[in-house]
Specification:
By secondary structure, the protein is of the alpha/beta class. The protein has helices spanning about 10-20, 25-35, 40-50, 55-65, 75-90, 100-110; strands at about 5-10, 35-40, 70-75, 115, 130. It has one domain: Rossmann fold. It has a 5-stranded parallel sheet. Helix 3 (about 40-50) runs antiparallel to helix 4 (about 55-65) and helix 5 packs across helix 6.
């Protein structure tokens, strides 16, 4: 698959980048090819992890520095409506999804962004959301 014109980065992708596990090439390449964003829910998860860590000062600086380089999508009224709609649909089928994953996916969807994640399973229940993993992206 070609790289979409814009992408929301899930928390796991950002953490792997900050830890240097995906190497600078994935995020670096994506920054050259697409508009990158994340959501306020992802920002919460990143800050929470940094505060819980043993090196909280260093990790907080890394999180703040990275977040300053990309767009952060807010949980706005269209996101709230989409999240409510999806949750009602899932519950009617006796399906569940983690509340943070629901919000992340629906913010992405409401703003018209595909979501890049390392764990498709967490988000694939959200109807209409294009969920992408790094292996889905065609090398340039």
């Amino acid at each position: 698959m070609a790289v979409p014109k814009r992408l929301v980065l899930d928390t796991d992708v950002i953490i792997e980048h900050l830890r240097g596990k995906t190497g600078p090439s994935l995020i670096g390449r994506l920054q050259d090819e697409t508009a990158l964003a994340t959501t306020l829910i992802n920002a919460f998860e990143l800050y929470y992890g940094a505060y819980k860590s043993k090196n909280s000062r260093t990790n907080l600086a890394s999180v703040k520095g990275f977040l300053s380089t990309i767009t952060t999508l807010e949980f706005d009224e269209p996101s709230a409506e989409r999240s409510s709609q999806v949750l009602a649909q899932l519950e009617s089928k006796d399906l569940t999804v983690d509340s943070r994953d629901l919000l992340i996916g629906c913010i992405s969807l409401a703003h018209g962004y595909p979501l890049l994640t390392l764990n498709r399973r967490h988000l694939e229940r959200i109807p209409g959301l294009l969920v992408i993993t790094p292996s889905d992206l065609k090398p340039q």
